[in-house]
Specification:
The chain is of the alpha+beta class. It has a domain of 55 residues. It has 3 helices and 3 strands. The protein has a 3-stranded antiparallel sheet with strand order 2-1-3. Strand 1 and strand 2 form a beta hairpin. It is elongated, with a radius of gyration of 22 Å. The protein starts with a helix and ends in an 11-residue tail after the last helix. Pfam families: DUF3551 (PF12071). Keywords: Signal. This is DUF3551 domain-containing protein.
Amino acid sequence: MRTTVLFAVLTFLLAFGVAGLANVSPASARDYPWCVQGRGVGYPGDCMYQTRAQCLASASGRNVTCVINPRAAYGQQRRGYRYRY
């Protein structure tokens, strides 16, 4: 009896965990305009800052710099006049 209850609880927890992982959306992986770049964070760096002030606060005391996110800066081109031949 005790083993059956334990099995039921573990099955419930496993199902709950799988349902929670299935609900993850890729929208949370957003590229923000500012990145911390330097030794240990790679290229383009840790790009999770909306403002330069946030980036500078995070970079303070860490031998890293703040740069504009190249994916956000050059990834989306503005739509404008299209040259026709």
